[in-house]
Amino acid sequence: MVNKAVSILLLLSPVLYKYGMKDCSLLFEDYMFFIGTVVLFVSSLMNNPVRELSQKWIIISFAGLFLFNVFIHSAMFLNPGESVIKPYIIKYGRSAMLFIIGIVIMVRYIENVESLYKYIVYAVIINLLVFDLQRLQWFVVPCHDTLPGGCMGNFARLSTYLAITLPFVYHCSIYLAPVCVVTSLLIDPQLGCLMSAFIIVFFQFKNQYVRYGLIVLALSLIGYFYIDIFKSFATRLPKWGQGINMLLISPVSGLGFGAIGELTQNLNEHSTISNSILQLILEGGIFVCFWLFYTLKEFFKRFDFSIEAIAVLVLLLNSCFEYVFEIKPLWFTLIFTISAFIIKQIDKRPKNVFC
After folding, report:
1. If you compute the radius of gyration of the chain from its CA atoms, what whole number of angstroms results?
2. Distances 162 to 52, 118, 143, 194 between C-alpha atoms, Å
3. Which H, E and C letters describe the chain, residue by residue?
4. Rounded mean pLDDT of 257-278?
5. Angle at CA 22, nearest 5°, toward 18 and 26?
6. Residues 70-80: what's their mean pLDDT?
7. What is the pLDDT of residue 268?
8. C-alpha–C-alpha distance, residues 243 and 280, integer Å
9. What is the mean pLDDT of residues 92-102?
10. Cα angle: 46, vertex 52, 54; to 5 degrees
11. How far apart are the first and last CA of the chain?
12. CA 180, CA 323: separation in Å to the nearest integer?
């Protein structure tokens, strides 16, 4: 039953999109994630666990860090006369807890994880078809801006989606993968998908000459797109610098989960700093930084060049330059990507698992 629920969520979550006022769209995405997690939980009650987690403290410690963050940043703690916890911390924390619950359920109950990859491919194909129709001025799904964005609402989000799903697309259909890369470069060059393609080819092809050729090609493309790369970093580096300066004010507790989005929305700016990893550290503080360091160390220790490991690596690298974890329609895809790697590790080494 869990497999059926996951297949539906992987297919529908990147396709269902509510267009309208910004707040209405975000509310729709929050409700869809909540309902999807409930469906996942109910379906797990109809299955017996396929595998068990060990080293659960990685998950438990993150939950503890969140509770510590809520306590430190609650208005009650900072101002005894007030009795209201900052709502954006609760909202962010609720989503984070549902995210963790989704990982635990998928890891414990999914059977034959590779059979679910095709549903990611189906969702990618639907987005590409909608994108092509939008380019022909058939706006079956409206866009937030002038550039078509498939069911994602804008082209940047669509390109990010294609980048993080490319390993699964490559695994299922090597012919569809180049289409995704070309699409991401077609209108407004987004290099995340191209970076994902290089990572896949570099780790999947063992021939030394292929790797050397790939390096030469990468350097050539960097030279060709150097203007776009320069513009991209020119907009990101000041945001990263401001974020690090804010962290220095409160390095232990951070700014509070959800604070980056709240702060930038109040300033009528973009609600992210285009770096999900840095944003997590800024909001969680030094303890989250240590937790993240250990988790990444465990991941790279178990990196086995499988398509699932490459998918997580692609996700991590894109998160260093994009707001991947802030795109709510992608959350179930992100949960599945992480879960697929953990499942493969458990099934391969049941006595030495990642989480």
Report:
1. 20
2. 31, 14, 17, 10
3. CHHHHHHHHHHHCCCCCCCCCHHHHHHHHHHHHHHHHHHHHHHHCCCCCCCCCCCCHHHHHHHHHHHHHHHHHCHHHHCCCCCCCCHHHHHHHHHHHHHHHHHHHHHHHCCCHHHHHHHHHHHHHHHHHHHHHHHCCCCCCCCCCCCCCHHHCCHHHHHHHHHHHHHHHHHHCCCHHHHHHHHHHHCCCCCHHHHHHHHHHHHHCCCHHHHHHHHHHHHHHHHHCHHHHHHHHHHHHHHHHHHHHHHHHCCCCCCCCCHHHHHHHHCCCCCCCCCHHHHHHHHHCHHHHHHHHHHHHHHHHCCCCCHHHHHHHHHHHHHCCCCHHHCHHHHHHHHHHHHHHHHHHHHHCCCCCCC
4. 66
5. 60
6. 60
7. 44
8. 11
9. 84
10. 150
11. 23
12. 19
Within 13 A of 73's CA, how many CA atoms are on the CB side?
Answer: 25
| CA distance linking residue 215 with residue 21, whole number of Å | 44
User: Which residues, other chains included, contact 94 with Cβ-Cβ below 8 Å and sequence gap of 6+?
Assistant: none
Q: What pLDDT does 69 receive?
A: 75
Tokens (6 digits) for 231? 């513009």
